[in-house]
């Protein structure tokens, strides 16, 4: 599965199914790791390593990949593809001109919502269902650059 999730490159990661009862908020057993919902790569084409823009959005929002709702990931991905098509570098300033942050503290989500009168894209799906149970764990492999730590 790591080959399906990763872009070609020298990196090495382990992608493994989660144990029974494990959730995306499970504390790691002293090993660096993060979780990804399967829908991010299977439906939205998000690959590892995250692009510079994807990392910048996660850092600006101060969230882990699974704390950003899949519809919000779709906005990030669509914006990045639009910029690529326009031959422009995606920037946080322009992106956040179109989107604002909505945190659902009760469930731990961070969502992006279109600002009034600035709708750029339709939501990917009106309602995501059953994605919460379909996730996997990403841990460093034995060789190659570390995908879990941004050294830039």
Can you tell me about this structure?
With 152 residues, the chain is of the alpha+beta class. The protein has a domain at 34-121. Helix content is 28%, strand content 18%. It is built from 5 helices and 5 strands; from the N terminus they run αββααααβββ. It has helices spanning 2-5, 38-42, 52-61, 70-85, 92-98, and strands at residues 13-17, 34-37, 99-104, 109-114, 135-140. Strand 3 (99-104) and strand 4 (109-114) form a beta hairpin. It is globular and about 45 Å long. The mean pLDDT is 82. Residues 44-102 form the Transposase (putative) gypsy type domain. InterPro entries: Transposase_28. This is Transposase (putative) gypsy type domain-containing protein. Pfam families: Transposase_28 (PF04195).
Give a nutshell description of this structure.
This protein has 152 residues and is α+β, with helices and mostly antiparallel strands. It has helices spanning 2-5, 38-42, 52-61, 70-85, 92-98; strands spanning 13-17, 34-37, 99-104, 109-114, 135-140. The protein has a domain at 34-121.
Which key features would you list for this structure?
152 residues; alpha+beta; 3-stranded antiparallel β-sheet; 5 helices
Average pLDDT rating? 82
Work out the helicity level.
25-40%
Distance between the termini: 27 Å
**Order of strands across the widest beta sheet?**
1-5-2
The helix-strand sequence is HEEHHHHEEE
The stretches of 5 or more residues where confidence is low (pLDDT under 50) are: none
Total of helices? 5
Radius of gyration: 16 Å
Tell me the major beta sheet.
3 strands, antiparallel
Structural class: alpha+beta
* Count of individual beta strands: 5
How much of the sequence is in beta strands? Answer: 15-25%
Shape: globular
């Amino acid at each position: 599965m790591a080959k399906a999730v990763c872009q070609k490159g020298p990196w090495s990661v382990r992608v493994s199914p989660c144990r029974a009862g494990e959730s995306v908020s499970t504390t790691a057993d002293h090993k660096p790791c993060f979780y990804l919902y399967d829908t991010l790569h299977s439906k939205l084409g998000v690959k590892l390593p995250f692009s510079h823009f994807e990392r910048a959005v996660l850092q600006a929002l101060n969230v882990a990949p699974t704390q950003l709702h899949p519809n919000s990931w779709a906005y990030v991905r669509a914006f990045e593809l639009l910029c690529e098509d326009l031959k422009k570098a995606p920037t946080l300033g322009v992106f956040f001109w179109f989107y604002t942050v909505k945190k659902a503290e009760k469930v731990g989500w961070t969502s992006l919502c279109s600002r009034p009168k600035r709708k750029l894209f339709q939501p990917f799906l009106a309602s995501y269902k059953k994605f919460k149970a379909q996730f996997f764990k990403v841990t460093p492999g034995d060789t190659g650059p570390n995908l879990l730590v941004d050294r830039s």
